[in-house]
Design a protein that fits this description.
The chain has about 400 residues and is mainly alpha-helical. Helix content is about 55%, strand content about 5%. It is built from 17 helices and 5 strands. The strands form 2 sheets. A 3-stranded parallel β-sheet has the order 1-2-3. A two-stranded parallel sheet has the order 4-5. Mean pLDDT is about 90; it is low at about 1-5.
Amino acid sequence: MSTNSTQNERVVSGMRPTGRLHLGHYHGVIKNWVEMQLNYECFFFVADWHALTTHYEDPSRTPDHVEEMVIDWLAAGISPSSATIFLQSMVPEHAELHLLLSMITPLGWLERVPTYKDQQEKLREKDLATYGFLGYPLLQSADILMYKADFVPVGEDQISHIELTREVARRFNYLYGREPDFEKRAEEAVAKMGKKNAKAYRNYRKAYQEQGDSEALTVAQALLNSQQNISLGDKERLFGYLEGISKIILPEPQARLTPASKMPGLDGQKMSKSYGNTIALREEPDDVVQKLRKMPTDPARVRRTDPGDPAKCPVWQLHEVYSNDSTKEWVIEGCKSAGIGCLDCKQPVIDGVLAELAPMRARGLEFEKDRQLVRDIITDGSEAARNVARETLDDVVEAMRFSR
């Protein structure tokens, strides 16, 4: 549930700083961000604290990784005029909210997150028996709830983290959203909507609470979102009053599934630095050409005259990303009949990759020449994010009645 205006829906997403990004990152995450910044109020952050959960023994390279990754974001088309780009550690309110949420989050909720044991198994060479590693999904929850996000773009493997975030928000609202005079203040807020809207709101509320009419709940929420003459605090009360619970201090975000990345690596596996099969977003064109020319092909094509099978060739997976239907038909026919050689087959892929990377590399070179501008973008974005974070934290502390 969200109290944000439908014209101003918020998206929050972040990435750990790992240095320069590659085409797998672009097709899996960044391309989606570039599109979302046009339609939503976006907060994109570098999750440098999250990097410590698995690389706490040597964080010395993190500052360089942060800068290189942000340059790649900017090169790929993320605009500081359309999205807030910031550094997690420059908004200390994230840590404070994480601390407060940790006081109410049952230990079992963290232990059951699927990625907890999966990552421990995958990273057995590291000592991950730390609170930071166990608690990182809750830090993620704080990252999201801090900005009262409507949507969080994630892959399917991260759905459990959004569910945890929703549970934490629900528990917080249940514990701290029950004002002593909640019902009285909610009714006063209803009256401020005007006679016609107030009557509609009460009818929808009754239909939902007495008959379980979920459509009535949805319509009532839309009605609240359209109200311009009531305060945000009253709006939060009325969202909670709809369901007969309490004031909504931390709205529950929705997961927005991102399209599965179709970007394979140079060897046909998933593109990953650990496999050494990547093409960086700002890679030199000559290096890109050499990497693609050296790609393995169908092992059956030992000689130029041997027919092959595109389904058994890693290059074909790149054609699926970069080639149109006519080119793919040409590849299938030419490969199976040995009418074309493997270098001929690779050329359209080479052309497609170079065309995609060219504008990114050009933009990236400009930012590489002016790294102070990049640092200023991070600083300015972090200040803007901190202003929003401070408001949320004030709401949280006030709701907890922890401070006068």
